[in-house]
Amino acid sequence: MPRPVLLRDMPTLADWLADGGGDGLGRALALGPGGTLQELDLAGLRGRGGAGFPTARKWRSILEAGTEAGDRYVVVNGAEGEPGTFKDRAILRANPYQVLEGAVIAAVTIGARKAFIGLKQGFRPELDRLERALVELEAERLTAGVEIELVAGPDHYLLGE
């Protein structure tokens, strides 16, 4: 059974960096796409959705599609579409830096030119935290050149339609 991930509040960029924030991106850049995918395989990382699809398999299929597949993008769904859940909002409130770093790692691994983080427009505290964190990361050049766009969509289910 996987170990639970502890959710710790990271109020500032300095707090996040002092706790090892950014180390994952540094490691991914050093390993390159192939090495990063190998580490994801070894770690057994899976998606947070109900299917628990293996992350390495998903990312590898995108990378191996080649240039004929066209431009690649990373999409982070923080819309909390499942009724009665609060998992996305809890993570975004506590540590938006971690979410942003994960999006950047995904983008550099699969060769994406841009990342989108979508959440409902009514998620004002989460949007505010993400906006502030993104400005801080960009100012410190901690996005590896990946453009990240925050997208506030309608408050009803399903955001992606």
Percent of residues in helices = 40-55%
What proportion strand? Answer: 5-15%
| Gyration radius over CA | 16 Å
E-strand count: 3
The neighbouring-strand order within the major sheet is 1-2-3
Pattern of helices and strands: HHHEHHEHE
Averaged pLDDT = 90
Secondary-structure content class = alpha/beta
Oligomer: single chain
Number of helices: 6
Shape category: globular
Characterize the biggest β-sheet. 3 strands, parallel
Cα distance, first to last residue? 34 Å
Low-confidence regions: none
Short description:
With 161 residues, the protein is of the alpha/beta class. The chain is 47% helix and 12% strand. Helix 2 (23-43) packs across helix 3 (55-64) and helix 2 (23-43) packs across helix 5.
Structural description of this entry:
The protein has a three-stranded parallel sheet, with helices on one face. It has six helices and three strands; from the N terminus they run H-H-H-E-H-H-E-H-E. With 161 residues, it is an alpha/beta fold. The longest helix has 21 residues, at 23-43. Helix 2 (23-43) packs across helix 3. The protein has helices at 13-18, 23-43, 55-64, 87-94, 96-110, 124-139; strands at 73-77, 114-120, 147-153.
Descriptors:
alpha/beta
Draw up the topology in text:
Blueprint: H1 13-18, H2 23-43, H3 55-64, E1 73-77, H4 87-94, H5 96-110, E2 114-120, H6 124-139, E3 147-153
Parallel strand pairs: 1-2, 2-3
